Amino acid sequence: MYEQISANKRKTILLIVASVLFLGAIGYAVGLVWFSGPAGLVIAGVIAIVMSVSSYLYGDRMVLAASHAREVTAEEEPRLHNVVEGLAIAAGVPKPRVFIVPEGAPNAFATGRDPEHSSIAVTQGLLDIMNRVELEGVIGHEMSHVVDRDILVGTVVATLVGAAILLSEFVMRFWWFGGGGGRRGGNDNSSGGSPIELVLFVVGFLLLILAPILGQLIKLSVSRNREYLADAQGAMLTRYPPGLISALEKIRDAPHAMRGANNATAHLWLEQPSRLPGSGKTTTMEKLFSTHPPIEERIKRLQEM
Amino acid sequence: MIIWIVLGILALILLWVAFAFNGLVSLRNRADNGWSEIDVQLRRRYDLIPNLVQTVEGYATHERELFEDVARLRNAAMGAQGIDQQAAADQAVTAGLGRLMAVAENYPDLKASENFLALQEELTGTESKIAYARQFYNDQVMKLNTKIQQFPTNLLAGPLGFTPKPFFQIEDAARGPVQARF
User: Fold this and answer.
1) Coil/strand/helix, residue A107
2) Cα separation of B14 and B16, whole Å?
3) Which residues contact A95 (CB under 8 A, 6 or more apart)?
4) Which of A76, A140, B97, B180 could bond to B102 as cystine, CB 3.0-4.6 Å?
């Protein structure tokens, strides 16, 4: 467990250094074309540092906001609060903040940077179909992610990748509407020559090509073993593996289409969320970002405990 | 030359003493922390009991004896000293509350009341928190006791004032289903 914690801290530092260097390189390249000087490098460096620091400090808030999660009080959701507090006691960590995501698909995730700054979010669908024992199984799994600092790596990756995806969409759209619209206006001179347009196109194109690499990056930083480990550790916390087994079976059998499914945060969830209805189906892009072991295999391993 | 070797060995021993001492201190603090968490949850349950009794009383007027029993058990548990006594007293409270909830089963109006449902959730939640706190405490105590008894830490533990802590145990009777008395 302590090895797990220090490995996760190392990974986070590595990720942040890599993304600062990467953004710096892009900024330098863009700056050479645009300003013919180091201004691009400075700007990109500042952006990269601000992004890394805020992904560490505010990553949990961004992830929660991106999932439309709403914090609930103990008065609103006594059962959920009691279960979260109980498992925090069992794990010997402070009680995380408790959120609900307005989605019908049963699912849950944990985020934050350490046990002192952590949050656990569950979907409304999960609350509706799980009994107390199953809920304890699910929260036990999430609590293990909190204890092992998996949440730190997961959240930093989610915000960095999320920012890259957002940036690429923004740039592509800007080029599409801004640049394309200008062409339609009939001004032939600007269609091929404007350096700004060219730079934006190249950056957007680069980021688009980058998507599979980003997916690979998530897979590398968030190994499948981590999910098995959290399953086992969560079952150790509740001392009752059948609770989590039954919860996973319900998740497997429920239609799991999620409106807000998002490639940048998919790895944080208990089970891979998908935009497609029907269990087990995922889009090609979602497969690219898939980090979850098959649910059947997870159930089997828990049964063998 | 020899003096340096001796000094080196002495430094190593001192280093080991420091590490072993710190390890023992942090284990003991975790166990103490676990104990105070049990205490917090037990107290929370004792605070719930008058509320619960009052609510059930409003519907089940003929159970005076049971209510008095539960109140007496609660007072006894609140005055309990030491871990063993606390564990025994708490077990009696658990049995009394089991009887109270079993009686409540006979009154459909009570079971349907919002106030009772909220209290029932609080009671279930608190009882599972007590169980988790006990689990955490016992885990920490086991680690501490093992460390204290293992060689070579056992050479240090006694002189430095570390003694094994008792587990928070429940008797076998309490593990079975609660017997309802009619």
Assistant:
1) coil
2) 5
3) A84, A85, A88
4) B180
Q: Do A89 and B136 touch (CB under 8 A)?
A: yes
Query: Which run of H or E residues covers position A25?
Result: helix A2-34
HSE-up (13 A, CA, CB side) for residue B169? 8
| Cβ count within 10 A of residue B181 | 11
A169 is catalytic: no
A289 pLDDT more than 80: no
**C-beta separation of A123 from A108 below 8 A:** yes
Cβ-based neighbours of A217, under 8 Å, separated by 6 or more: A157, A161
Closest CA to A75 of B52, B114, B129: B114
The region of weakest confidence among A52-61, A92-101, A237-246 is A52-61
Using alpha carbons, select from A294, A16, A8, A50 the residue that is nearest to residue A151.
Answer: A8
Average pLDDT for residues A47-59, to the nearest whole number?
Answer: 85
Q: Bin B82: left if φ > 0, else alpha if -120 < ψ < 50, else beta.
A: left
Identified catalytic residue from A142, A227, A271, A286: A142
Do B30 and A92 count as a contact with CB atoms less than 8 A apart? Answer: yes
Q: d(Cα A140, Cα B161) in Å, to the nearest integer? A: 36
Q: Which contiguous run of DSSP H or E holds residue B66?
A: helix B64-78
Between strands A117-123 and A70-71, the pairing is: unpaired
- The verdict on a CB contact (< 8 Å) between B132 and A79 is no
From the CA of B66, how many Å to the nearest CA of chain A?
Answer: 28
Chain-centre distance for alpha carbon A21: 22
pLDDT score for B99:
87
* DSSP three-state, residue A114: strand
Distance (Å, whole) CA B97 – CA B74: 10
The answer to whether the predicted template modeling score (pTM) of the entire model surpasses 0.90 is no
